[in-house]
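Reading a protein record of the kind used here takes only a little practice. The record below shows the convention in full:
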Amino acid sequence: MQEGLAGSERLKDNGLFFQWGERTHSLDERLLVCSDSVDVLQVKFHPGSIKDNHILLLTSDNTLRLYRVEGGEVFNLGAFLVGDKPVAKVPCSKITFLGALGEIAVDFDFGHPELSGNKTQEEIKNFENDNRNSSLIEIRNPLSKSNTNIIVHQPEKGMKKNDKTKEKDIYSNFNWPVYVLSGDFIISVVNISLHEGFKSELRGPLPMTPSSVIQCDKRACSIICLNSSPQVVCIGSTNGEILHGVVLPFEGDTMEKKDIDLSTFINRNNADREIYFFEAVDIELGLCTTSQQQECYSCPIFLYKDCSRCDRYFVTHSAGVHTISIGCMENLQKDLLENTNDIFSTSSTPEYLVCTKTTTTKSCNPVVGFSVYYNPNSIITLLANGSLLSLALMNTSALPKLEKLTLHSEKVVESPIKEVLKMPFDQYIHNLLKKAESHPIIKLSRNEEHSLKECHELIQKTAQIFQEKFKCHTKAREEIEKRAIALKMLKEYQLKELDNMNKERRSLQEKAESLAEKYEDIREKQEVLMKRCAKLVVMLSLKKEILSDAEQEYLVDLKNMRGKLDKCDSSIEKLITKKSCQETQMRNWKNQQQKKSTVISDTHTNTIKESLVNSSIRINKMVAEIKAVKKQLHLK
């Protein structure tokens, strides 16, 4: 397991081995520690790394640097420029002119993996056949709308030298686009391979529509790409505004329509995608305790994904922690299968989870560490005063869903029940409870002494939040009671309907039995009538003097059959006569044979006797000779 520890001037990678202890590797220590102009802005593990040992970091010189930690050594795989390299600094300051203008990259994130554009279908099939034993996952390319398989896991075994070429081919089959955000809301895309010697291609800036969402007085500070399809991008600014956009492919050559002049950017190519911003969400940077307008507070905000859900993410800043649920995510994913209208009709809902500052206080207790735990879903927050806060998250999607009641008769219930039945009841109650303001856990700084006025305002704000929350819970309780009464009345009505149906069933059964008896009687009468009709037809046919055509044909057939029968009778008589003659001849022949007798003469008899005597004498001699030989040979 690999862990990365990063600061503004140094990055360490801790490789944790359960049998050999801990090892720490400093990445590019000479550059990151000795240089005054290079700071670490963002560090992330590359999601396409098979062994989880590739680290990508963003530095303040507009450069992405890729490292691989393997065998106790750190390898620098390359540095990729994502913008102009800052040179000059503001006098008496460490801030560069590009940084002051917001032209320095401040954050990056990885998008969905995409298939390399130079791979043919035959090469893709060969790649899948060669990696049948590996763990493959089918992904969808949002730009080309095609599916492909990529490797997501392999056993951590030593790679042989002759397998380096094959490893390079595996890495080059798909790209992980890196979305790089600058302070002036310019987003670029760069594809970075995990293999050495790969030439990256920087595309951008990406066109953004509508362009009115980007204002000059805003400064971007964070970006994340949610695990959704199509790709949803969230961009945070220092004034507490978060933009939600969906990545769309270009349809044709639309670069001229977007009025983007690439001549002002160095080493950039035309963008192959654009971002459509459909929503802007404002979050509170500090709990508002008064109705008076306070000075605008700004601070960097940081965005974190929720891997258990694609429609939720977390926001941390100096004033606390927020969670934001994107309401249109379900409609956006359904639009891939069916064309739906009003995709973005449902707005997102921010919720204040942890508050470390109010609008009236000057000092704050900023969040210095944040993590998400998934079993069960909860967040772990480390504050600047050293306190560790763990907060469980209620996931409504994990609750059992109530089945929607469907009634065939519209007269059963009145109109209020019909309105409730339009949506699931749990969702209806959830929407009622959502109307209340968020009630965060307050963790203010202990170093600042709060005045009585501030404490009083905080207590009033807390009481107001509880009142609104209590009203929402009261409303939800009333709706549940109404629902219970309506369901009880509906149950009583359905029980009555069941009784009526049972009575009707019994009456119908009795009617069916009586009808069955009547049917049997009618069938018997019908058979009797059929027999009588047949007799009448026969009697009528007998009384007719003129034969019908069928009867005449039948009469001709009978005559023909009579002639054939006569011929058969004559043939049979001839055969019987012939048989009697043959039997007489056989009896005569047998009598003649019995009269014949065979008599042997005396000469023949004497000759036969003499030959038999001679044969017996010879046999006796041979038996005596054989016994003598056995005695000589001592044989038994």
Q: What stands out?
A: Residues 328 and 345 are 7 Å apart (CA to CA). The chain has a mean pLDDT of 76. The first strand starts at residue 2 and ends at 6.
